[in-house]
Write a structure and sequence with these properties.
11 helices, single chain, about 25% strand, alpha+beta
């Protein structure tokens, strides 16, 4: 039998989209952000390119003409847009006269969403892909390899190959009250599951937005008009600039999403006196589910042109959660960081990344650091669980 061969690609467009997506559909935890259309749009729109410190080296593993495994691989000369922070590691390298950059990264740029990163036909193929990635890093004399927000299968394969594991915390909402496998009947039923003070707070916040004369409308997929995409991007770009940053994603990127992956997007627009004033863009799972019944929704981007008290909470949480309940969506992922999400019933969930460092002494130091950090994460999770917004049993 022929030995597997690892190939590197200077752009996702060099890989057959149908073959990539077919491999993605075989995974236990696919997401729209690992679709070929999404990754290709990041490159073609100029959002994730060598000019911005993201040099694609997408990896594919072949046996003859059979694609066994694949992953998005980038060579990075900075750590922006990753959301698993290793700046302290880079500083430590610099203080010792060593180069931390360039490093290798298996991740979706600017997208802290858990899911499959190592697309593989089986566990053996996934293990061979990890082995090939580490060997590539050694031969290229890269400082390190990092796999971010991986699925359980990815993390197990990395751990088996000696990579160090690191946990972070996100906040996700589940459409399964208590021990029930059925979703909430409606938004009021969801509110009824919360403690009195949390239920009262949410109603007060929604009332403030309604009393300010704000109304919401939503559209999905091809029903999102070009004018609505333009308005959304105005909001998105303004939010970044208000924080002193240029937006990661270009208008062309979102146009490519509208053209090539429209079914993955849900847009909420807030209006006052018939005038749009804010928007919230939600991503939807598109693999392994009927087109009209996504399993997972992902809170992604938001922005406003006018300030209204509590508008952010309504646009980014309450409107999407109500939509998820009405459409039978199982889970809403609120993204990285933000304990305030717990007051909206998004509960803490651990996410995991895997790391390999070439320098033995630094690898040992980082491993000790991760042990201490891991203990802190466990204590933090326990502390958060004690602050559950749901009614106490009984």
């Amino acid at each position: 039998m022929a030995q597997p061969v690892l190939r590197l690609h200077a752009a996702p467009g060099e890989i057959d989209a149908e073959a990539w997506n077919a491999l993605l559909a075989m995974q236990a935890a696919p997401s729209p952000f690992m679709r070929h259309e999404y990754l290709d749009a990041l490159h073609r729109s100029g959002s994730a390119t060598p000019e911005h410190g993201w040099t694609p080296q997408f990896a594919t593993l072949w046996r003859g003409k059979t694609l066994l495994a694949a992953c998005p691989l980038y060579i990075k000369d900075h750590s922006y847009g990753e959301y698993v922070f290793d700046w302290a590691w880079a500083n430590a390298y610099e203080q010792h006269g060593l180069a931390y950059y360039p490093k290798a990264l298996v991740a979706v740029p600017f997208t802290p969403v858990p899911g499959t990163r190592l697309l593989a036909r089986d566990a053996d193929s996934r293990a061979l892909l990890v082995q090939g990635l580490v060997q590539f890093c050694k031969e290229a004399e890269l400082s390190s390899l990092h796999l971010l927000f991986g699925a359980d299968e990815d993390i197990a394969a990395c751990a088996d190959h000696g990579l160090m594991l690191r946990n972070t915390v996100q906040f996700h909402w589940s459409n399964q009250p208590g021990d029930s496998t059925a979703g909430y009947a409606d938004f009021d039923a969801f509110l009824a599951s919360l403690s009195h003070d949390k239920r009262k707070k949410i109603r007060q916040e929604r009332r403030k937005v309604a009393d300010a004369g704000v109304r919401f409308r939503w559209s999905r997929g091809s029903d999102i008009s070009p004018a609505d995409w333009d308005f959304f991007y105005r909001c998105y770009a303004r939010t970044y600039r208000e924080h002193g940053n240029a937006p990661y994603l270009s208008r062309d990127f979102f146009q490519r999403m509208a053209d090539t992956l429209p079914e993955a997007w849900l847009l909420f627009i807030a209006e006052r006196d018939g005038k749009p004033i804010a928007s919230s863009l939600i991503a939807l799972s598109v693999d392994g589910a009927a087109a009209d019944a996504p399993r997972v929704a992902y809170g992604r981007y938001w922005g406003a042109l006018e300030r209204v008290d509590c508008l952010h909470f309504d646009a980014c949480y309450y409107q999407p959660l109500a939509w998820c309940i009405d459409h039978g969506v199982q889970r809403f992922e609120g993204g990285a960081q933000g304990e305030h999400k717990m007051a909206r019933a998004l509960m803490p969930v651990k996410t995991t990344s895997a790391h390999w460092l070439a320098h033995p002494a630094f690898a040992d130091a980082v491993e000790r650091f991760l042990e201490r950090e891991g203990e802190g994460i466990e204590n933090y999770m326990q502390h958060l669980d004690e602050r559950s917004p749901f009614k106490s049993p009984g």
